[in-house]
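To fix ideas at the outset, we first show an illustrative case, written as a sequence plus integers encoding its fold:
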Amino acid sequence: MNTITNVADTPPHHSASTRRFRQPLGLVGLVLFGLAYMVPLAVFTTYGLVTQLTKGHLPTAYLLTLAAMLLTAYSYGRMVQAHPYSGSVYTYTRKAFGAHFGFIAGWTLLLDYIFLPLLSYLLIGIYMSEYFPAVPTAVWVLSAIALVTLLNLVGIESITRVNWVLIVAQLVFIVVFVTLSIHNLGEQSKPVSLLAPFHHDGFSMPLVMTGAAILCLSFLGFDAVSTMAEETPNPRRTIPLAIMVVSLLGGLLFLVVSYFAQQVFPEWSSFADPDSASVDVMRRVGGELLVTAFTATYVAGCFASAMVSQASVSRVLFAMGRDGALPRVLGKLVSKKRVPATAIMLVSLFSLIALFITLDTVANMISFGALFAFSAVNLVVIKHYLVDQKLRGARNYLMYAALPALGFLSTIWLWTSLSGMSFTIGLGWMGLGLVCLLGVTRGFRLKMPELHIAE
């Protein structure tokens, strides 16, 4: 039988070297981390796919997604205040609903976390191959995986420094793109309808909802911020603020960019290739020069997202390994930088799937896992504060019942709008998690290992 060792019972030097993270991230570092995870140019990740799906109503889909994500971001902030640890949804649901549900929630969370680095590598391959067709896609994918893994092994401080440069580059590009788009629209002979990107002929709410559900993957940055709780001084104050800032800033950037992209290229059905439809938009706005600048900036943004998403999922694996829900080798920190090296290497190996998977499949996988996790967090807030803590009064009912309930209903609404493929893949993944749970507990005959984390 495995022996579960409490952190408090381990020698001080062992606890410091294998159980504790360094704490280099303040508010600015967390916001950069979240924005890098989201990628300010992430509007172009599924731009062609969702624009065609919604029949040219991408900005409307982003509005709906932003509203739901702000409510869910609020719930994440409340749970970070209650449990400021690595593990995110896994930790919160385990504390509120028990070890078994916590395991399934953490496992489902892995569906979006572990596939997001893979998505970044896939996009790097797509756009670099578009610009350098003579170089095989596999070369770009493998090179990106190797470099991102190396930077993650070096430590979170190196990622923060690189993020500064990459985030600024993306913001500068957005300013240039919006400026050129306004100039382009000003030269048109026909009048421009300011509301056309939000509503025009062919509007269908079910299609817009399906698009909004897919767009949830663009907002995973605020969720990733919560996984850095053990690497942040005073996480109960700093992380909730960072979560809201990242959600709002990211959402506004997505709205602005999608709005102008729709204005300058309203022919949503005429993309040469939906996966790289943004190249058509850039070519119309600024010619080949802007295409070159976009490719360089977007690939850099995908690289930044790969760095932080690999860092984030490795922390979730670390939390589940430290807990004993997954092999304990994943729950150890190594080297002077104190990084979860085994978890980082596991994610890099899994990311090799990017060599043969499609963009549409990855987007659906990530959205299923994300919306399940978001729904769970909203329920956890209600359970923790009103049931476990027994808080009462009008203010508490508003903060810990009404707002989380709205967040839960909005995420469930989006979740049920996903495609049949999303549910096929997602439920299959959850079924695999149940098999793992049965193995860990030997058919529920053994208790899950207890979660012991010293504050």
Q: What stands out?
A: Residues 277-323 form the longest helix (47 residues). The chain has a mean pLDDT of 79.
